Each structure stands twice: as C-alpha cells, then as structure tokens.
Amino acid sequence: MSLTDKEYYNLTISISKALSNVEMPIKVKHVRAAIIGTFHSNGGHAFWAIAIRQPIQGNRIVAWKFCHLLHKILREGHPLCCAHSMRHRTMLLEAGKMWGHLTDGYGICIKHYTKLLVTKLEFHDRNPRIPGSLSLRQGDLEKIGEGDINIYFQLAVEIFDYLDDIVALQATIFNSITTFCVNSMTSPGQCRLAPLIPCIQDSNPLYDMLVRIMFKLHANLPSDLLTGHRQRFNTLFHQLKAFYGQSRNLQYFVNLITVPKLPEAPPNFEQQSDLGNYQTPVVVMPDSDPIDNEPEHPAIDNLIDTTEATPPIPELPHANNHHQSAAAAAPVVPVAQVMELERLIQERDDLIRHLQMETQRLSNHLKAVSIEQRDVQCRMEDQIATLNAQLTQSQGELTNLRFQKEELELRAQTAPNLEQRAQAEEERAKASEEKFQKLKTMYTQIRDEHVNLLRQHGEISKQLASSTKVAAEASKAKEELQCQLQELEQKQALVANALQQSSNDARQEQEAISEQLQVMTQKCESLQSRYDEMEASRQAEIAELRISLERLEGELQTFQQDRDTLSQEKGTLEERLSEIQGEKDELGLKYEECLGKIAELELKTDTYAKEEVSLQQSVSENSLKAKELSDQIEQLRTENDALKRNYSELEAAKASQEAEFQRTHQEELLRFDSLQSEMDEKLTALAMEKSTIADEKQQTWDQLVMLQSESSQKVADFESLEKDLKAVLEQKDHELEELGAKYRELEEKYQSLDANMERVLSEKETVEIDLQDLLHQQEQMEQKLQDALKQVATLETALIDCRISGETALRTLLEACIKSSEKLTLRAIGENEMPGAGGTPTYFLMIAEELQEVLTKLKMVHENYLKDNSTNVESLARKVIIGAHLLASAHVQGMTVCNRSANIESGERIAEELKKLGQSITTLFQSLQKTSESNTVSDRITELKVKLEEVTTMIVDLGKQTDGTENLGDMVESELSSMDKAIEEAASRIQEMLSKSRASDSGIKLEVNEKILDACTSLMQAIRILVQKSRLLQSEIVGLGKGTASAKEFYKRNHQWTEGLISAAKSVAQGANFLVTAANKTVAGGAKHQLDLVVAAQEIAACTAQLVVASRVKAPRSSSNLTALGTASKNVTQATGIVVATAKDCSQRLEDSQDLDLGTLTVHQAKTKEMEIQVKVLELEQALQVERMRLASFRKKNYQQPVEE
C-alpha cells in the first residue's frame, strides 16, 4: 500500500498541526492520522520525510511535541517504524544536546526525552521480537530467552537502562513544573505532562518483564551474583512507585489513563514462592477523545495537471465481436468462450506489462537524476564551505602578519640583516595579494557554475513534470484495464453458469478451465500488487524529489546570501589590502632608518676592530721591548760576572794599581747602580701599561662576544619566522590545488550529466520501438494460444480415459487393502486370546519364520511389478501390508524378549541388533517408494533377511539360557511348603523334649530345661506367625503383579526375586532344625551347650529377617499385610532376645550350683587347682583363636560358593 498525493498532503497537514508552536498538548486526531499514515506507507519513511522539514531545532515547543509524537508512533505505529527510525538517532541526539543548553525547563526535558527515544530504538533493535508497544503474550518471554540464562541476564540490564531513562525524564518534567510554578490544568502544564502517558505505558510492561526475568535469574544463578541486579531493582521500584503516586494525584491524568498501583514492598526474588503471589500491574486507557469538529484535511487542488490528452492505447482487436459471439455461443460451445477470454487476458497482461516497464524506467530515470542533482548540490555546498573557511583563514593570516609586523618593528632597532627580511615580507605580501586574486577568480567561476546548475535544475524540473504526466496517463490506462478486467470477470461468471448446466463430461472440462482462470486471476492480482508497489515507490520518489527541490531552493537562498556576504568580505579584504600596502610603505621608511643605524653600528665595529689591532700591535711591541731589556740585564749580569772573575784574577796583579782600580771600580759600580734603577723604573712602567692594555682588550672582547650572541639570536628568530611563513604559503598553495581538482571534478560531473540526458532520450526511442515489437508479438501469441487450446482438448479426452482406468485400478487396490487389513485384524484378535504366548523366544521364532517367507514372496512380487510396468499393484500392496505388520510384530516381540531376559548383557546385544534391524526396515520402505530402483529393493530385502536370521539365532540362544527359570514357580511353592513343615516338626520336637525332661529331671535342672524349652516354643510360635504373614504378603504381591498371567509366569518373569524367596525359605528351614538340635543338646548336656542354643536362636532370627526383606522388596507401601509382617518381625526379634537371655541365665544358675568348695582344700590342692585352671584358660584361648580362624575361612568359602544340599 502506498500514499497518493492527496494522502501525502493530508499527512503533511496533520503532522504540521501536531507540531505547532502553540504551547498546548497534541490533539488525539492528529496523532491518530500520523499513526494511520505509517500503516498506509508500510513504515516510517513518509513520517520522517515530513518531520525533518519541521523547525525542530528552531522552536523548543515544536521539538518537545516532536518527541511526544515520535514516541506515540514508535509505540502504536507500523512495526517497521522502529527499524526505519534507527538512521535518525544522530539527529535526535544532536537536537537533545542543542536544547540541553536552554534553561527555561523545556531544554533539559528535551535532552532527556531524546535520550529515552534513542534508548528505545536501540532496545528494539537488539530485541526485534519485542514490539514497540512492549506488550507480550503468554510464552513470548520464554521464546525470547530461548532457554539461555545469559540472554535473560543481558535483557535485565537493558530493561534497567530503559527504566532509568524513563525515571530521569519524569523527574525532569515534574522538576520543571515545580520550578516554574506551572499548573497541571493549564495548557502549558498539560503540554509538559502529556508525554508522561506513553512513559507510563512503557514502564508498566517493562516492570512486569523485569520481575519475571529476575525470578528466572534467581532460580538458575547464585544469589550473590545477582546482588547488583537486586539493588538496581529496589531503587527503580521505589522510583516508579513515587512516579505513579505523583501522577495519580494529578487531575489531568484522571480521564486519560488509569495509573497502575505497585505493592508496598518489592518482591522477594530469593523466595520462588513469592512469584505465585505476584500480580501484574495493569494500565487502562479509556476511549480517546472525540475528533474535533474542525475539518481535518481542507480541500486542495491537484498538484499535477492531468488535463492533457493521454496517448492512444492500442485497441484490442475485435473485442466487441468476440464478446458477443462468446455470449451467444456460451450454452453451446463453452470452449470458444474460454479461448476468447484467455486471448483477452493475454492482451491485457501484455499491455499491463508494457505500462509497468515504462513506469519503472521513468521512475529509475527520475531517481538517478535526483541523486545526481543531490550529489552536485552537496559538492557545491562543500566548496562554498571550504571557500568560507579559506576566507576566514586568510583573515587570520592577515592578523598574524600584522602582529608579525609589530614584532619586526620592535626587533628592527637592535637586529641585523633587516633588509633581507623586509624583502621577504614584501614577497609574502605579494604572494598574499596573488592568492587573493586567485580566490577572487575561483569565486567568479563557482558563481557561474552555480548559475549553470540552476538552469539544469529547471530543465530537470520540466522533465519531472513530463514524467508525472506519463505516470498519470499510466494510472488512467490502469483504470481502463481494471474496467476490462471487471467485464471479463462478469463474462467468466456467465461462462461458469453455462458450464454448470452442461453434462457430467463437460463438467470436468469446466473445472480445468476454472482452474486456469483462477491462475490467470492470480497472475492479474499479482501484477496489480506489483503495480501498486511500483506506484508506491514512484510516489515516495516524487515526495523525495519534492523535498530535494525544496531543500535546493533553500540552499539557493543561502547561497545567494553567502554570495552577498562574500562580496562584502571582498570589499573588506580590499580595504585591508590597502591598509597592508600603507603599512608596507611605513615599514620601508623604518627599514631605511634601520639601514642608517646599521651603518653606524658597522662604523663603530670597524673603529673597535682598528683599536683592537693597534692594541695588539702595542702589546707585541711592549713584549719585544721587555725581551730586549731582559737580554740587556742578562748581558749586564754576564759582564758583571766576568768583571768579578777578572777582578779576582787580577787582584794580586793590581796591587800596585789598587787605588786606581778602586776608583775605577767605584765608578763602574755607581754606573751599574744607576743603570739598574733606570731598568727597574722602565720595567715597572711597562708592566703598568701592559695591564691597562690587557684590561681594555678584555672589555672590547666581551663587548664583541655579547654583540655576536645577540646577532646570532636575532638571526635564528628571523629564520624560524621565515620557515613558518613558507609553511603557511605552501599550505595555501596546496589548498588552491585541491580547489582546482574539485573544480575539474565538477566539470566532469556536468559532462556525465549531459551524457545521461542523451542516454535517457535514446532509451525513450528504444522503448517506443519495443512497444511496436510487443504489439507484433501479441499477434503471434494469439496464434499460439489457438494451437494450445486444441492441444488442451486432446489432452482432456486422454485425461477422461486415464481417469476411468485409474478408478478401476484404485478400486482393485482398495479391495486388496481391505482384505489384507481384515486378515491382520483377525490375526491380532487371535494373538490377544493367548496373552501368555507373547514375549517368548518361541513366539518370536514363529513370527520370524513366517516373515522370511513373506519377504521372499515380496521380492518376487516386486520384480513382477516392475516387469509388468506397474500394472500388478494389488499383489504388491497385499504383500507390503502383511510384511509391514510382521516386521512391526517381530520388532515389538524381540524388544519384549530383551526386556524380560535374565541375562542383561545378552538382552542389550539383541536390542542393539533390533535397532539395526529397524534401520534396515526403514531403508527397505524408502527403496519401495522409488519404483525405478529394482536392484536396490532386492538388495535391501536380502540384507533384511540376513539381519532377521541373526536376531533369531541370538534370541533362540537366549531362550536356551533361560530355560532354568521355567520351574521357578514350582520350586518356590515346594520350598515354602518345606519351610512350613520344618517349623511344625521343630515345634513338635521341642514339646516332646519338654515332656521327657519333666519325666526324667527334677530340681534346678528341670526348672532350667522348662524355661529354655518354653522360650524356644515361644520363638517357634512367633516364627510360624511371621511365615504366615509373609505368605499372605507374597500372595498379595503375586495377585497385583501377574495381571492376566498365572502365578508361575509371574515368578518366572521376576526370577531374581523368586530365587531370593527360595533362598530365604531354605535358610529358615535349616535354622529351625539347628534350633531343635541345639535345644536338645542344652537339655541333655547342661550348661556347656548353652552357647549352641544362643547361636541357633540368632541364626534363625537372621533367616527370618532375610525372608522379611525378600517379601518387602515388591510389596506396596500402603499394604496392611506389609504392616502385619513388620509387627511379626518385631515379635520374632523379641522372642530371640528372650531365648538368648534365658539361656545365659540358666547357664549361670547351673554354674552357681556346681561351685567348688575351696574350704575343704589344702594349700597344695588349691595351688594345684589354680594351675590346672590357668592351663585350661590358655587351652581355651588357643582353641578360641583357632575356631575364629576356621569360622573366617568357612565364611569366606561360603560367600564365594554357596552351600548346596
């Protein structure tokens, strides 16, 4: 189903009214219209196409109402609305972030509401089985969980997050109402409170699901693992309870919703019985308000002019004549009418197909053109955005250049090499000017391209109008075809009436023709549905094109505004360029001043260098003078030494000339002292002059080093600045290259668009040629239809013959099946008359022998069936039915024998073979279904016979092993009789012993014998009662368990239990005989045989306990005989204790009467007696140890091999 233009316009009006900027709640009729629109458009595409054009980011009231409307549509709209809304999550989050900065109450509410809507979309995306309304039927939650506890765990976490967002939204809404003092009964208050209704509807089923999931988690996981879940649930429980209570108190919600009530305390999940006390909270929504009286959709004019004449549609050749002839000849020749109808339907189908192809082609063309136009528009927008960014960046660069200029002015006073940097700045200014000229030319080109795009957009709009006209013509043709289809259906009804009045032979033809007509009608309906789908897609595409056109118009306006702003920015840039030029001139003047200062600095540097050179020369001269003076001093010293040496040598020779010599010597000394003083004064002056020169040299050197460091630092700063400016210029050049590449790409797109337009025109010409070809093919198909109808007539006659022969064969096959079923039923009735025969190896052997013969005959019959070309069906069906029954009986009887077998291992092996036999049976019947595989069926029958023979052999061997259990019934009866006889004989013998003792004994011995025999008599009486109660319980067990079988058969089936009874009866009989023997020894031998009596009493008590246990194994718990048997067993135990106590007491009394009189013995006799007693004690201890060893070995041997009598 698709939306027509009128429906789409009405939906637009409803959504626009619902999202008005008036602060009041949304009207119910507008919400209902939007929800119905989602079902008409099969999803939420139409809703979103209209909603995104509303001022959601421009008006807070519209944004709030949009969230409310979207929430209602996600809950009650088409099931695909949630899936179609997933692509708009980013838009919702961005709108929420934008309005979240508003502080008037709506902003924070919108932020929380958009977050809740995104959470709801993601929840349904992860859980597609949960509908938007969150309502689940009984058993849906188990299907969602799939029996996996991990899914329930994750689902609980997601529901917690969902409920947290709902609680946060309602808290924000109530907080805004309280903060701004808004009354709930006013329009602003109702506008804020209205979205709480879908929040209550969402939270109620979420709470119910969460409670049930928590009970499932606590039933399958440890309680400690779910501590966090319980804490979150308790917090949410109290928050929801407060939310519901606060909403219930508001008058606004009284007539709109019945708020659910939560219990006083949260459920106890650790106690599973609390789930039975849990009651699901219910939300009740009363009937919605009546629709307002104002008109929902005003009358509008058609958006598309459809008054032009539609192109002529080829007429159906001789349609009227054929209709009249068909109507006239219907009662006589119905086949002619059918042929005419089929021909008309074929013509109609061809015409529909042609129109559908044409519509599809035009819609594809429109879609491609709109997509290309949208891409071009997006690219233009991107280019405009990049140009704006470049302009902004250029402005920033100009500001940076101004700052750099100011820094250069500050640095120019002290920094060298400013001439080169000024030239670099001048070059950069020229580059910036050139870049601005390039941007200006690029802007002019883009403006021209945009004008061309607008022209192309106008041409595309014209083409869209023409395609819309073609679509209208196609819709008219569709209506005409529907009229023709109705006429054909009426004529079809007339033909059907005529065919019903014909004979039985013609009735078969009528059914075949009606089936063909139904097929054709279905084809027509399918074509109609396909056309509707195409029409829906066309409408959606037209709506998208309209939206894109509106968006393009808006973008054109924005582009024009951007163009105006760009022109203004161009003027400002030119002004800034002139300012930069002036600043450049000022920089030139300052540059000249800097050059003068640099020249002065260079002159000073030259003077400093000259002074340094002169100082260095003076220092070198002074150093030479000092060397000369030092040489003179050394020379004088050497001369002084020589004179002293000559004086010493000539001292003796100059005695005569001493006076003269002394005079001359004094003169030389005076001259030497004067020269020495002059040298010292000169050396002091030279040292002082040298120190002053060194100080001046150090000062000049320090000044030179400082100037050199400052110069190097300035050079480094200017080099870094130059590198940064070069990088910026390279980046701008790269961006200009990218703009050029994008411009070339746009030119290629325009060329491809022109090529697509030419291709569309050529395709249109080919479509017209194809239409002529289709008309020609239509004539050829009419001729082929005539030939096909003739073939149908011949096939109908052959079908009648085949039907007669088939009915005969079916009747024969039915009689064979009935006879075989009768035979099998009589056989089953005969088997039921002998219930004891079933489940035995003999009965299985009888069935197996008969089955071998039937399988052999089945093989022969199947081969004959294939040789006779499937004509002899009767005998094959009879053998298959009998064989299937015997195979089933053999399998059932074999499994019964296995279950009743005493040998468990053999029974399990036979059961495995029977399973393999069942697989072979299945394979055989699968092969029988395929008639062409004759060899396969023969092989399967042979294989089945082999396996049946193996199973038969194993069951016969099993029967031979279990023949020993045939006489178990007689054995148990004989053993029980022997036990009763032994007990009676023991009681009579005890009475005889008592009478003999009374006749022959007296005194203490008589008293002891009477007590012992009385105790034994009481024990035998208790044992007799126990045996009687055991016999009654066994009779009850046999009566309940044998069913229709005999008691012997019951004992045979339960052979292990029967063997236990036999063993217990033998033990009781032996114990009775042993008790009589021990009592006789005790009466005859005295105290030394008292222990024999104790052992005999304990042994017979143990035997009776074995009998009780064997009887109790199969007894029902509520049996009265079982209770009586327990009482009798307790009496036997008490009687046994009495016998043991009496024997010990009597033994003590006899020993006391025979005590040794020690007073009459001498010391030697007493000592001898003591030694004899010690020896006897040692002998008895050794004998006791030996007897214990014998008893242990005897018991061990008894356990390994039971004693046989």
From TrEMBL:
The record's section on Pfam families has: ANTH, I_LWEQ
Domain ENTH per the UniProt entry, residue ranges: 3-131
Which residue range or ranges hold the I/LWEQ domain? 960-1202
Has the keyword Metal-binding been applied to this entry? no
Supply the alphabetized keyword list.
Actin-binding, Coiled coil, Cytoplasm
Top-level taxon in the UniProt lineage: Eukaryota
Q: Any one Gene Ontology biological process term?
A: clathrin coat assembly
Q: Which InterPro entries match?
A: ANTH_dom, ENTH, ENTH_VHS, I/LWEQ_dom_sf, ILWEQ_dom, Sla2_fam
- Mainly localized where? cytoplasm
> Can the keyword Coiled coil be found in this entry's annotation?
yes
Localization per Swiss-Prot or TrEMBL: Cytoplasm
**Recorded GO terms, molecular function?**
actin filament binding; clathrin adaptor activity; clathrin light chain binding; phosphatidylinositol-3,4-bisphosphate binding; phosphatidylinositol-3,5-bisphosphate binding
User: Which ranges of the sequence are coiled-coil?
Assistant: 391-583, 619-667, 718-798
Q: Would you name any one GO CC term?
A: clathrin-coated vesicle
Per the record, the similarity remark reads: Belongs to the SLA2 family.
Report what the protein is called: I/LWEQ domain-containing protein
Q: Which organism is it from?
A: Anopheles culicifacies
Question: What is this organism's lineage?
Answer: Eukaryota, Metazoa, Ecdysozoa, Arthropoda, Hexapoda
